[in-house]
Structures are given as structure tokens and as C-alpha cells.
Amino acid sequence: MEFAILGPLGVYEQDRFYAPTAPKQRQLLALLLLNANRVVSTSTCIEELWEDNPPNTALSTLQSYILQLRHLLKKVPQIGSLQAARRILETRGGGYLFAARGHELDVDVFGDLVRDGRAALGKDDIRASRLLGRALTMWQGAALSDVTAGPILRTHLAGLEENRISVQEQRIDADLRLGRHHDLLGELSALTTQYPTHENLHAQFMLALYRSGRRIQALGVVQQLRKVLHDELGLEPSPRMRHLHQAILACDPILDAPAQPDKLLSLDLVASTSHGGRGRRAIGQPYPVTDLAAFAGRAMDD
Fold this sequence. Notes:
Elements: E1 2-4, E2 10-13, E3 16-18, H1 23-34, E4 39-41, H2 42-50, H3 58-74, H4 82-88, E5 89-92, E6 95-98, H5 106-120, H6 125-137, H7 151-177, H8 181-194, H9 199-211, H10 215-233, H11 239-249, H12 270-274, H13 292-296
Antiparallel strand pairs: 1-2, 2-3, 4-6, 5-6
Helix pairs in contact: 1-3, 3-4, 5-6, 6-7, 7-9, 8-9, 9-10, 10-11
């Protein structure tokens, strides 16, 4: 049995699909699944379903939705009874708890793969790329793409999408260190079109183009980014983007594909080295593209 969040909402058992059809029930099930194994208070459920304008019958209507969800779960052969459905969708502590084992919820499987993939970054990039790539295949379109989201779901969904993009960036970083720049061009072209102000994706695209012998196009990427940032936000590219731009103009050898693509050779920063200092990054953060030596997988001379 599988519960799907990373795409259309649903409950799957083998080849059969189960999901409520009523919009409010779908919204409630989505909220409970996103908070699986945690109690969601009745007040939180009501806020999600009706925001600031709940009806006088909100509590009884919510209880009716819970009962209907239990009847839906009862139809799943692995559950099979209303009593078993109550053990999965529990009434507890002034709210409701949806009990799901980790391998049953796609977002939990995604999280496990991401954790293991991130742990391998910079140490075993082949493993990191494979695990992060597998994590991304868990997504079947936008999360809860067929659910109308209220204020609480919208917050959850924004966090999920931000995490997905972060994972994709980290997988691309690993692939760049592995010398797979040619394979990334189509993906990065699409991503920079989708996220026209996202500096790190543009920097990754610039490096992939440069390593593919397309230096002029790489320089064009930063020009387009500068125009969009100026026109839409009144901003200029960050100093780190400008350092990358200058490195491409100078054909800096640090940008070349690493001779040992399976190893991360240095964590020095182009920016800090150029100013006589040594950069630091917070523990637990991914290697950003702006850490050019690490990103390029090459050592720099001090």
C-alpha cells in the first residue's frame, strides 16, 4: 500500500487506485498525509478547509469528512474493515492522526533517499547522483497537483517544492563533478527558463556550457540573468556570479572538468582566494555553485 503526495493525491494498492472525489475530503486527506504520524488538531483542519470563514457546522462537517475517509480506506483490500481504517485514521488528542509506515508514504521514501544522497555528496558523487536522481523520480508532477490548497497546505507545498529544487541542484552539482556536463544542457536550459531569477541554476548552466565548448553561450546566460534581475527586481547579479562571469571571460583553468571526477579535491572559494582569504560554509549546507573550486571539483593554488 502506498500513499501519494508527490503528484496527484491517492492511495495505491498494487494496480488499484483509491482517492476521494469531493474537494474538501481530498484537501483533508492531503493535510493528514503531509502530517502523517502526527496529530493534526481539529482547529488546524478547520483553518485549512475554511480559512477565516468556517461555517457554524464546521466541527460536525469535519467529523463527517473523517468518517467518509475511513469508509474510503475500508475499500482498500489490505485494510478491509472500518475498524482497521480507524486504526489508520485515528481520533486522538483533540484531533486526528494518519498512521503510515515510512515506506508507504512517497514523501518519506523521497526524504530517505535525499538524506543518503546528501551524505555521499563530495565523497562518492556517483552514489550521490544515483540516490538523488532516484529521489527526484518519486515526483510525478507538482505535489498534490489535483488538490485545492488552503493556507496550511500552501505552506507545506512551498517547502516541498523548495526542497525538490535543492535536491535537483545538488544532483546536478554531483553530475558536473563527474564530468557529465554535456548530459545536463537540456535539463539546465529548461530549469533556467522555469526559474529565470535563480542564480545557482544559471551558474550551473554557465559551467556546463563552458565545459561543453560553448563559452559564448555561457556568457550569454549571465547577460540574460542580469537583464531579468534588473527589469523585474531592480537588482544586479551577486558578486559571486560576477566572479564566475570573470572566470569564464579569463578561461580560468579552475572551471575545466576535474581530472579525477570521482573526488572532490578542494573546498577553497574563488571569491575568497581572489581577496586573499579563505571561505567557510555552514556545516550541513550543500556545496553551492559559488564555491567554484568545490563546484568544479578542482583544487586552487593559494
